[in-house]
Amino acid sequence: MDIIKKYFPGLSSDKLYQLSKLYSLYEEWNKKINVISRKDFENFYIHHVLYSLTPTFIIKFKKNTSILDVGTGGGFPGIPLAICFPESNFTLVDSVGKKTKVVNEIASSTGINNVTVTNKRAEKIEGKFDFIISRAVAKLPIFMSWVGGKINSRGFNSIPNGVIYLKGGDFSEELSKLNYNYNIYNISDYVDEPYFKTKKIVHIYP
Question: Which residue of 73, 78, 110, 122 pairs with 92 in a disulfide if CB–CB is 3.0 to 4.6 A?
Fold first, then answer.
């Protein structure tokens, strides 16, 4: 948790408490259902919680913002973001039922009440959202074919409604195939940890 306090010194004690509960909850569930690589679990707060919170460097979601987390897996980035933005509404989606079961249990055990968890493929999700977030579940052109029609046209946040995608490495070829506007943010500009050296936040919008 020290790493979270370092980069988010303004978090309230309630939010810090909820974030601190995540480790033991995931540790227990991970023994039953492998939602986080067991080799990677020692890096839980850097690779999963801190990474999930990096979009807050470019946006602070306003009250009643609707956010869809596609391919949430064990609940990332949706669960940490939902803790930090309790007045926004999060829908966490994954096609693997045992993972969504874990996410439901984690949300309940942590007292998170602004999360809806759905066991569906992204293409089957109905409705529109202000933002769609994800951690590199597919190549960008494929991802946008799933979710491009699910973005609310009118926004009220500090950046346009769209997709917030967490991705590492070189994906310039993927970007060249998009018929969307986009901005790229180097996470290393905000977080001084080696893990984030090549990690980026991609904001894609109509």
Answer: 78
Name which of 75, 191, 203, 196 is nearest 130 in CA terms: 203
Is 190 in contact with 166 (CB distance < 8 Å)? Answer: no
Question: Has residue 107 got a pLDDT over 90?
Answer: yes
Mean of all residue pLDDT scores within the chain: 96
pLDDT band at 136 (very low <50, low <70, confident <90, very high): confident
User: For position 50, what pLDDT does the model report?
Assistant: 98
Give the whole-angstrom CA distance, residue 85 versus residue 18: 12
**What would the DSSP string read from start to end of 13-78?**
HHHHHHHHHHHHHHHHHHHHS--S-GGGGGGIIIIIIIHHHGGGGT--PPTT-EEEEET-TTTTTH
- Residues sharing a CB contact under 8 Å with residue 189, sequence separation 6 or more, in sequence order: none
- Number of domains within the chain: 1
Closest CA to 112 of 17, 8, 1, 10: 17
pLDDT digits (tens, 9 = 90+) for 146-187: 999 999 999 999 999 999 999 999 999 999 999 999 999 999
Which structural domain, as residue segments, surrounds residue 11? 2-205
Residue 69: φ, ψ to 5°? -100, 110
Would you state the structure tokens that stand for residue 77, as one six-digit string? Answer: 């980035």
Q: Which amino acid is present at 144?
A: M
